[in-house]
Write a structure and sequence with these properties.
17 helices
Length: 415
């Protein structure tokens, strides 16, 4: 045990003293902050759009212009610059469609069918259309135009249907406002809604991102024949355990710094209590078990390869599998206790991330599922460490050609 601790201390201090560790300690929170800051800045960077308007009704163009007038682009100019086209003149619909598709302008055609209780146009009558280019910004502008047209048409129908304006306002105004709450019954639901994804992302970075350090360190020391010297004093299992625990501690150090800073910022912003003591304890448990399980996979890859290029080729399919929890996170956040989320959270490689996302959601998973997932992870982690130890003790002494999958399989089966 003392020799394992010496290896642990050496590996840990060697990693935390590097510039890469310090850079990661600072840049990762900055990167996560930019994920939320950049979309907010994007709201103020909207541009003024050209709108080609064909008003067959002769009555909606003015009210629509008034409805759009308060909207502003990021530079303060009108959000939409309306250019009215004479409906009496020949309107080349195909040409207008091409102009909209090429991003030259939005095209809006208002027809009489909109004013006739919004019925479908009769055969031979033109249909109302709204065309625009593809792109996220264009989709946002399109939604603004849809809402404006909806409001103007509804207003025209109310005025010409002898409906009391006060009654129309009452019918079209929401009667209650939805307020999302935390588990304690306090406002703050929007922040709580982000907690599952942020928790899972931090766990993912700490487990998958940090554990990959084992591949490079294993290959480098294998190539320099350092292991041949170390194995004269320690057993392969002690050497592997020391390295894995050291990298695990490096990741834990980073996450404690990141989460501490995040919780402090949330507390200053009046959003304290987002993480309970139980959630923090489960986060630590899933981190340790998930890290040791996936780190065992990284150790097997590093000890079976002789160069980083070989390891990268082998890691490509593994990385795609390990990235799936990020793609599946929104499915879990939408329905954390649904059948799909429950089944996926019991896939061993996904369990630490998806179960932690479910635990941070409201409502969380039943306690028996949490216990079952932890027992599953314990069993899988023990098996993974044992298999990694068998591959490690043989693979670290092989230099030259990379091991084949058949050889690795034979090593794992050898007690």
């Amino acid at each position: 045990m003392s020799r394992t601790f010496l290896i642990f201390a050496r590996e840990y201090l060697e990693n935390v003293r590097t510039k890469a560790f310090l850079i990661g300690l600072v840049l990762t929170p900055v990167w996560m902050g930019l994920m939320f800051l950049v979309p907010m800045l994007g709201r103020d960077s909207t541009r003024s759009e050209r709108l080609l308007l064909v008003d067959d009704t002769g009555e909606l163009a003015g009210p629509l212009a008034g409805q759009l007038a308060p909207l502003r682009a990021g530079d303060g100019s009108p959000r939409f610059r309306i250019e009215a086209l004479d409906p009496q003149e020949a309107v080349d619909a195909a040409a207008l469609q091409r102009r909209a598709g090429q991003g030259e302008a939005f095209v809006l055609r208002l027809t009489r069918s909109l004013l006739e209780n919004k019925r479908r146009p009769a055969q031979g009558e033109p249909a109302p259309v709204l065309y625009g280019p593809s792109g996220v910004g264009a989709l946002e502008a399109g939604r603004l135009l849809e809402q404006a047209v909806h409001t103007v048409v509804n207003g025209w129908i109310v005025r010409h249907s002898q409906v009391d304006p006060a009654v129309a306002v009452a019918l079209t105004t929401p009667t209650v406002r939805y307020t999302s709450l935390t588990e304690e019954g306090k406002e703050g639901g929007p922040a709580q809604a982000l907690a599952p994804f942020l928790t899972m992302l931090m766990l993912y970075l700490g487990v998958v991102g940090i554990s990959q350090m084992l591949i490079s360190s294993t290959i480098e020391e294998k190539a320099s024949r350092v292991y041949e010297v170390l194995l004269s004093s320690v057993s392969p299992l002690q050497l592997m355990a020391g390295k894995m625990l050291a990298i695990c501690a490096v990741g834990l150090t980073l996450m404690l710094a990141w989460s501490g800073g995040g919780l402090l910022t949330a507390s200053v912003q009046g959003m304290g209590g987002l993480v309970s003591g139980t959630q923090a304890g489960l986060f630590l448990a899933y981190y340790l078990l998930g890290f040791l399980m996936i780190a065992s996979l990284m150790v097997m890859v590093g000890s079976a390869c002789s160069t980083l290029k070989e390891a990268q080729n082998l890691m490509s399919p593994i990385s795609m599998v390990l990235a799936l929890p990020l793609l599946l996170s929104f499915l879990v956040m939408r329905d954390p206790n649904g059948s799909a989320a429950t089944a996926l959270s019991f896939v061993p490689l996904f369990t630490p991330f998806l179960m932690m996302a479910r635990i941070a959601s409201v409502p969380g998973p039943p306690p028996e599922q949490v216990v079952a997932s932890l027992l599953l992870l314990v069993a899988c982690t023990v098996l993974a460490v044992r298999l990694a130890g068998r591959v490690f003790r043989v693979g670290i002494l092989m230099v030259g050609q990379p091991a084949t999958l058949k050889q690795v399989w034979r090593w794992m089966r050898t007690p």
